[in-house]
Amino acid sequence: MAEKITPRSVDYSQWYIDIVLNAKLADYSPVKGAMVIRPRGYAIWERIQAEFDRRFKETGHQNAYFPLLIPMSFLQKEKEHVEGFKPELAVVTHGGGEELEEPYCVRPTSETIIWSMYKNWIQSYRDLPLLYNQWCSVMRWEKRTRLFLRTSEFLWQEGHTAHETEAEAVEETMRMLGIYKEVAEKHLCLPVIAGRKSESEKFAGAVATYCIEAMMQDKKALQAGTSHFLGQNFGKAFDVQFQGRDGRLEYAWATSWGVSTRLIGALIMTHSDDRGLVLPPSLAPEQAVIVPILKNDTKAAVLAYCEKVLAELKAAGIRAILDADDTQSPGWKFAEHEMNGVCLRIEIGPRDMEAGKAMVVRRDTGEKTPIDVLGLGARARELLDAMQTSLYERARAFRIANTKSVADRGELLAFYGKDQGEGSGTAAASGGFAEGLWCGSAECEAELKAETKVTIRCLPEGRQEGIAGACCLCGKPAKHLAVFARNY
Amino acid sequence: MAEKITPRSVDYSQWYIDIVLNAKLADYSPVKGAMVIRPRGYAIWERIQAEFDRRFKETGHQNAYFPLLIPMSFLQKEKEHVEGFKPELAVVTHGGGEELEEPYCVRPTSETIIWSMYKNWIQSYRDLPLLYNQWCSVMRWEKRTRLFLRTSEFLWQEGHTAHETEAEAVEETMRMLGIYKEVAEKHLCLPVIAGRKSESEKFAGAVATYCIEAMMQDKKALQAGTSHFLGQNFGKAFDVQFQGRDGRLEYAWATSWGVSTRLIGALIMTHSDDRGLVLPPSLAPEQAVIVPILKNDTKAAVLAYCEKVLAELKAAGIRAILDADDTQSPGWKFAEHEMNGVCLRIEIGPRDMEAGKAMVVRRDTGEKTPIDVLGLGARARELLDAMQTSLYERARAFRIANTKSVADRGELLAFYGKDQGEGSGTAAASGGFAEGLWCGSAECEAELKAETKVTIRCLPEGRQEGIAGACCLCGKPAKHLAVFARNY
Q: At the N or C end, where does chain A have fewer CB atoms within 10 A?
């Protein structure tokens, strides 16, 4: 019920948790740091999966499944990789009642186990490329968790590809980044900035990490997907050599890329409001709910009429339900379905029935439109399409309004103000996205982060040509245009 | 390549492994007891999943996701459950660099973690039923493993439902058993016997376990799915009480049910032959392959013609590929696609092209049919449908031919002969299914198993009325009709 939601203006973090719990998307579990994804949340994940999976297959990728457990010694084989992941591992020391000779970790990501198999499968350039993906859960021990955004266990997909040449691997890295951007924008209605991570923010073991970054309603950034060019790092670590076209042995080139259930958190924090969940129609499990206004003398007739409307909506391919429960008032139901993020509410009472009309209310704007029941399916489809576009446009306008070009340190610090600490404070405290020139030095980055928690989110693609001017942090000559923000 | 396959008559176990490895369905992994499911195997699993998932949703079930790790203390709460699973657990003792206060196990099955959550979600009969399912991996430590059939980690679905009444839970148990039987028969072409397990073979924590049992080509039984009526065992263990219609508190009634990637093993062992994989068309990733017969002077024309045929097959909804590789001979390709279980081979050479014909060869029977290219799509569809029916009928005839009614111990022992030990011996050694009357005593079962490795696979549904006669093991009055077999 709507009254359970803390308003965003009071406590943005609590608002988020209230939505997740009250819309029954997820719940806390008795396992430290792990959550339960409830059916309403999982149904959204299934639709997100379907959009990605279809595109992965259209671009020649195949799904596979690799073991959950990874020998600890495998992690050691890539130096940066083990340093990055070791602090987060869950370790299996016993199996079948006995202590294991070598402990296993629960996969935090699968580069190592997958490349240990690729060694067996790749002998010649004719075996390449391998374009594999797996849908699974991964585990990264976390002390401070937040439902969907940061949990010890989460669901994701991880693509792992092996290529004959560097150019092909780089092309694959960018292709998958493009797919991530397309699904984020088209289906999740998240306007995202695609770009490269700085050295200090890249994946442990990558040559270069690319990402899509979205702005949440509190103006913080959320990394919504990453695509890594791994060079020959894992090929060398696992000795995956192939005979090239010239007959010489060469190490295979690699990429990996992933999106996770974190995207559900991004959806909520981008579109929802103080009444509850707002979902893009293309991902909403329920796109329309019919709420009949039931009075004793016309109840049977109105319900029969609603059944007809339901059938018409379904025939138009709309995921629609009829809430015929007569133990709850229409007002209670309105609040409940708003909480749950049903895109359209269709109110039908005796007078609507007589006039052949229905009142349709859009979840995002609250806009009410009286509609002829004749042709309701097509009209509802139009409203859903309009809502899909409008969610994206609204989020994009919000990001633009909260993005500022900064020339120097003073402007940058003024834009962000004092950090109020995670979980505290209101949306206004977070500043937004700052665009500024950067010299490329890790020291500049580290100093800014220590002082303000602001980091470089990415170096946006397509905007790195002809950079000239001074680094907004240290004043030295700049090499990149960077997007700065506080982040999740 | 076909020459790599050990014939069934020489070594059935090795034949099975040869098929799995050579058709690239799965591979051994560096993790003890765990396998890698390769893309060709995973594609079959995705089709199996789709058939089940659709039916689960049509019968009102929803997917969800529960944590991978389960606190060890949870297992203890149901006495039989912990006794059954404790020897098979993988145990996580460290997380994030520290020893954990309480160790976790990797889920061997999720009754305990799920019922610990149901306690929070079930207060009133209005909250019931909960009809949840999850697709995930589970881990049961195994010393002796066999690809797909018995591995430490496997993929499955586990349904977990909570009900208001015993009758509803029993009805659900049988509904899901029915769905398992339907998909097994209709899509996997596995004729199965649905029945109840004896007390000694039931799931640890169940009141009653129902199963579907299939006969493999070596005449052994394979349990292909189970559906458990759990009574109030987990409701009581996790204190899940609800206010009933009469206002009184009652414990919720439970079911659980699962099928796993083991079904892929069942598919292979039921339908395949000494040339390789044979797959039911409805699950085959590739239903037809066009193999052009290429000669220098007509190569371009034949390839163009094959592309047209490919387009027609695809337009008819057939999953078809064209093998245009000119570095391999047609004969090599025939063997390769037979190994991979492509259902139809379509050979097209210059003379076929001139005559507007193609030669279509069925994978299961080797039958060759010259077909007019005009209307090839429809004709190929007919052949695929015929193959689907025929695989089922052949397997069913095989089971009937290898099922024997036995009246007494002498007949039973004669039917099975001496056990040759697992992995050794030929198909002929395994006997088949024996149907005999049984007194219901666990001692009779245990003695038979110790002596012959033959067990009661199930008490077949619908054949337990009017049982009269003597137990085929001890001669005392019988209570049940039982199906006996050696099993995987």
A: N
